[in-house]
Write a structure and sequence with these properties.
single chain, alpha/beta, Rossmann fold, 3 domains, 4-stranded parallel β-sheet, 16 helices, 12 strands, globular, binds 1,3-dihydroxyacetonephosphate, binds iron/sulfur cluster
């Protein structure tokens, strides 16, 4: 292992510019019995070279069922951890270990542990955007694609803590009538979408359907026609392929939307620019964009960075994910 790579969190070897990277990556996948999983927020080139592109729920399901020896998870770190938890015997590679998640960062395991201790008897429902250590303190995991279904199926008499996404939790409280205690976390990309920006777009395109991800703030969700996960929005667009859509989520999803609905027009909602933001004043997740063809190529070539989860944490962390998969069937 090159020490410098270890410090950087990815293999930064310069890749020969004359190579057809997509073809080389596909060749290596075959040789190494590897599959590439990519989230909808990654850049178009990464989605195009992947074996499977999906939302976080579909990616988790795929990770649980694949026969391949190696999985290259092109998303963010917690997604690679989820793959490892569901397929502990597989090698899980993550092209850049720096691909974190501001939402997962907003809930540290030690803080959740303290909060649980202050609320004895409460069960914990965690969004999949959490570390394995947080999942190990969790009773059931949810994704934006199944949160309502899973919460609806939980016993009514119990008390629940829901975290870390406050916006998703508020929405689920509203639609299920539950009174879950909410963690005050959020995603720096989705928190930036404003009612004003959408109203402006709606004025310019009055026929357009407004779609918003459940991580957006309540007032944004209230004026959206369609709310849900990335996959929910995509499915809606596919069922209405001739329409115009205003899309309030990370802009990477537009690649797949436009590919599957070539006749539709998609307007990405611009973010409100906040002073001193988290390194990106656009509607893009800088962590998802850390997945590049060069890094995927190097990851496959060197079999690094590999993601592993501490076995004691893994034993507990996989249970709420399995429970989610069962409850969301
Ligand atoms: P999905 O569950 O819609 O894939 O969302 C994951 C995510 O990170 C949204 O910011
Ligand atoms: Fe995390 Fe937000 Fe990026 Fe999704 S968009 S991976 S929630 S930082």
């Amino acid at each position: 292992m090159n020490k410098d790579w270890e410090n950087k969190g990815y293999v930064d070897e310069i890749v020969d510019k004359s190579l057809d990277l997509k073809a080389e990556i596909r060749k290596m996948c075959k040789e190494k019995d590897a599959i590439i999983l990519a989230h909808y927020y990654t850049v178009g080139d990464v989605q195009d070279v992947a074996d499977f592109v999906g939302d976080s729920l579909a990616l988790a399901r795929k990770a649980a069922e694949t026969d391949a020896k190696v999985m290259v998870m092109c998303g963010v770190h917690f997604m690679a951890e989820t793959c490892k938890l569901l397929s502990p015997d597989k090698i899980v590679l993550c092209p850049d270990l720096n691909a974190g998640c501001s939402l997962a960062d907003s809930c540290k395991a030690e803080d959740l542990k303290k909060f649980k201790d202050e609320h004895p008897g409460y069960k914990v429902i965690s969004y999949v955007n959490t570390t394995a250590a947080v999942k190990a303190l969790t009773d059931v995991v949810v994704t934006s694609g199944n949160a309502k279904k899973v919460v609806d199926r939980l016993p009514e008499g119990d008390n629940y803590i829901f975290g870390p996404d406050y916006n998703l939790g508020s929405y689920i409280n509203e639609v299920t009538g539950r009174k879950m205690l909410l963690w005050n976390g959020g995603c720096h990309v989705h928190e930036r979408f404003s009612v004003d920006a959408i109203a402006q777009l709606k004025k310019e395109h009055p026929e357009a359907v407004v779609m918003a991800h459940l991580e957006c703030k309540g007032p944004v969700l209230a004026l959206a026609d369609v709310v849900g996960s990335t996959a929910t929005m995509l499915e809606y667009a596919k069922a209405n392929p001739k329409k115009e859509f205003i899309v309030a989520t990370e802009a990477g999803i537009l690649h797949e939307m436009q590919r599957s609905c070539p006749d539709a027009i998609f307007y990405p909602v611009p973010p409100e620019i906040s002073e001193g933001g988290l390194g990106c004043s656009c509607n893009e997740c800088q962590y998802m964009k850390m997945n590049t063809l060069e890094k995927i190529y190097n990851t496959l070539k060197y079999g690094w960075p590999e993601v592993n989860v501490d076995p004691d944490i893994a034993t507990e962390a996989v249970k709420p994910i399995i429970k989610m998969l069962e409850l969301s069937k």
